[in-house]
Amino acid sequence: MQSYPIEEKHAYQAWREEKLNRYPLSVNELIIELNNPIKLMDKEIRALQSSCVKTNIVFYRLPANTQIDKQIVLSIADQLGLKQLDANLCADEDKISVIQNANNSSSHYIPYTNKALNWHTDGYYNPSSQRIHAFLMHCIHAAKNGGENNYLDPEIAYIFLRDENPEYITALMDENVMTIPANEIDKNNIRTAQTGPVFYFENGVDLCMRYTSRKHNIEWKKDKTVQSALSCLQEILTDNAYIFTYRLRPGEGVICNNALHNRTAFEDGDEKYTKRMLYRGRFYNRITNSLTSAELETNNAMVK
Question: Which fold does the domain 9-298 belong to in CATH?
Answer without folding.
Answer: Double-stranded beta-helix (3.60.130)
